[in-house]
Prior knowledge:
heterodimer; A: alpha+beta; 5-stranded antiparallel sheet; 3 helices; B: alpha+beta; 19% helix; 39% strand; elongated
Amino acid sequence: MTVKVGDEIPELVKHPTTRQLVQYAGAQGDFYEIHYDQAFAQGVGLPGVILHGLLKAAFLGQLVTDWLGDRGTLTTFEVSYRGIDVPGRLYRGRGRVTKVEGEEVELEVWGEDPDGQRTTIGNAAVKMFP
Amino acid sequence: MSATTSLVERLRARIGKAEPATEATVEAGHLKRFVEAIGDPNPRWVHEAPPTFLVALVPVSMHLEEAEEYGKGWLNGGNRFEYIEPVKVGDRITATGRVADVYEKTGGSGSLLFIIFETEYVNQHGRTVAKLRGTAIRR
C-alpha cells in the first residue's frame, strides 16, 4: 500500500466512561482527583471529571499504530491538549499524511469531540520498513 | 506578587538539574492492565509497550509539589515522545527527569505557570530507548 501526502488514515472512535478513567488512573498511577471526583473537579472550575490528557494521547497512539501495523516504526509522537473531554461523549481520533520523504512519513493527528472541535492536536513521524 | 515571583525563581533554580533516577521493570501484568485501560486490543502489546506506556512505568511528575502553591489546579499542556528502541516485557528501565524550563504567562483569564520537564529512559543494556518532553501547567 503506497502512502501519499493527503491520505486520511482510518478514524478511531472511543466511548470513554468514568469507569475507564478510574481504570486508567490505576494503570497509569495518576490519581489526580479531577479524573474521578466530580465535586473536586467542579471545585477547580471544571464542568465535572475530565479525561486524562495522556489517555487521549494513548487513543491517538492507537490511531497511528493501528494504521501503521507492521509496515514501519513510530519515531516521534507529540500531542497538545487544547480542550477538555468528558466521559459519556465520544472521542474521535483522526489523522492525515502530511509528508512522505523516502522511508520517512509524517502525519498530523487530532482528537475531536462530538461537535467536531479539535480538543487534542498532534503529529507523528514514522519510518517505514523497506 | 512577590510570593509568586519567588516561587517561580525557586522553581527556575532547578532547571537542568537531574532528579534522582527511578528504576522499574516492564511487567506483563501491568502492561495488560494498561492496554485494557486504554482499550487497545492490539496483540502486539502483550510483549511490547504501546506508545504512551512509559508514563505509567515511572512517575513523570517531577516532585514539583512546591508548584502547587501556584493557582488551584494542574493541567497537562502536552507531551512529546521520541522512540529509539522498542520497550519489551522484562526490560529494566531507568528514568531520569529534569526540569527544562519554568515560566509564567499572564493572559486575559489570569496567570499560568508553565513547567517543561524532560525524561530520558535507559534500558538494562545502557541504551536510551525513549525520551519524553512534557508541559505541566498550574492555573
